[in-house]
Amino acid sequence: xxxxxxxxxxxxxxxxxxxxxxxxxxxxxxxxxxxxxxxxxxxxxxxxxxxxxxxxxxxxxxxxxxxxxxxxxxxxxxxxxxxxxxxxxxxxxxxxxxxxxxxxxxxxxxxxxxxxxxxxxxxxxxxxxxxxxxxxxxxxxxxxxxxxxxxxxxxxxxxxxxxxxxxxxxxxxxxxxxxxxxxxxxxxxxxxxxxxxxxxxxxxxxxxxxxxxxxxxxxxxxxxxxxxxxxxxxxxxxxxxxxxxxxxxxxxxxxxxxxxxxxxxxxxxxxxxxxxxxxxxxxxxxxxxxxxxxxxxxxxxxxxxxxxxxxxxxxxxxxxxxxxxxxxxxxxxxxxxxxxxxxxxxxxxxxxxxxxxxxxxxxxxxxxxxxxxxxxxxxxxxxxxxxxxxxxxxxxxxxxxxxxxxxxxxxxxxxxxxxxxxxxxxxxxxxxxxxxxxxxxxxxxxxxxxxxxxxxxxxxxxxxxxxxxxxxxxxxxxxxxxxxxxxxxxxxxxxxxxxxxxxxxxxxxxxxxxxxxxxxxxxxxxxxxxxxxxxxxxxxxxxxxxxxxxxxxxxxxxxxxxxxxxxxxxxxxxxxxxxxxxxxxxxxxxxxxxxxxxxxxxxxxxxxxxxxxxxxxxxxxxxxxxxxxxxxxxxxxxxxxxxxxxxxxxxxxxxxxxxxxxxxxxxxxxxxxxxxxxxxxxxxxxxxxxxxxxxxxxxxxxxxxxxxxxxxxxxxxxxxxxxxxxxxxxxxxxxxxxxxxxxxxxxxxxxx
Length: 752
Fold this sequence. Notes:
By secondary structure, the protein is α+β, with helices and mostly antiparallel strands. Helices cover about 20% and strands about 30% of the residues.
């Protein structure tokens, strides 16, 4: 029994290891590097001090998953030193082989050199992710050749995977905004976004391009920032940039754009042509770095009282100077800054988060054989300053409680802010492509200082329109503090927010906009019977047309009879009235006015395209369009079908069904000139008839087939060079029949 229990524990442990999320903050990752060479440290040092290339590790094991032949190198600037045992690592799983862990190929491991608390990077990223896209971050125990090196912070790499996840593309300009040779006292090139002329070489020492092209894009950004600020929103996500600047300043994160070296961020140009800033490297946040570029903050008190408008007048920091010189941008900046302080530091939520992280890592920090501070210093630095040795590290709560008090006592933060309440659309359930007015009650604002931002999806920038309190924009009575503006429901869901400002400060609703927003869902008009019809059926396809995989499959053609686009959301197609929800059309699928849509009826949903979960019977059955509530839009019953002939409506979209050559995704009346000429000369008489049916044409009649209105074949024959034929149909029941001549011309007859 004991052995069985041990086996169970091993299995459970293995399962947990393999299933562990790489950036789960509540679990410590286990990363084990194996080098074949015993002098691996010297090899890594040699590369770090020369070409900075990777050296091959025999294997890297992440939470039990083994990867062979992996690239490893030391990283970092001030955090790396050849004399240290615990240096930061960069692991690249796909340097030599195509392999990844949960989709990640780059593992960045920081050695926590400047941070006694072990909290700065993870805590700062958790705050930042509330307001803009930022890396995930957690902890990992790192072993080399079986020896524990220590507890590291693992932060998500700014890679093609990252920008694709957050900006929906990965093939545009991407820059790491750090000096190529690393920032230091002797540095002269900084990624401060200053315009240096059109020669791209002027920028190449300050920025590292991580894309195939983009230097000209970067030059354009710096030029517009410095010389054409009125058009800055065409090339920069200004809101995201303001969030970054507010975050760096609020958290005294000076080893950033607002510090001496103007570094530690990325820029990615999305498909809308706008650069998006991405914050990186937060190991010295909460006041560890002291050099602002204009003054050194050598005391915790100085850091608490660092001006919230740092560099607002300094040309060497154009992103700050140029943006904050625009009154609206400054008010937006103040609104974002106030939100960061209120949501994290005024209510001490950051402290709760920090303590939860401590509970995860306490034992691992204590066991770290190469940590740069004592365990007692780790325990105390959340609250107490640690001085001496490396950069002094303020107690995080000591710093931020004081900074919260200082910031909230400044006039920019005590000024009365606008108040935005009672936000609502005038139509709770709008129809797509209609206009909807968004209204809100807003006080303490300027009459021209309110706007609505909206967009159809997260890939797009927000369109901004002025909101009015004039009684003319579905806003009630003029001057009643109810503002209104219309947005077009161009998608099934819209995202929106409201911004208001007065002469001093702005206010967003929701307060985390543009990163967060309100949503409003639209619906398509319900399809009525006759609007969307089954236009043609092919129930025995052996040689007409193939699907995407080259297979001859049955198909059903739909036709939109209306002048508007129809949504197939929540619509089903089936071949039996006992199960109306057999196959659902994909969400978001539409059919344009007077257009066609063909579905393969082959029971092969794994194929590309539209493939229903049923097949058609050549002996006859039904095709039904219906909603889940039982509302039937269309029912077509058909009888036995002839191979490679379509069962099609004539006239197209509205008429009765006839047997004819198929017209896949086309008008059923789209006959060739020769067919039209044949039909013009064809005579059937008498009609009605109670006996013989006579066919006559000046062109040869080669075949005749007669069907009932259910598509069942009742008569078929072929002929040789005959222009006149007589067929006995006296045995037919009374009713209407379709006579198909030469497989493409159908006429109705009546049997008395």
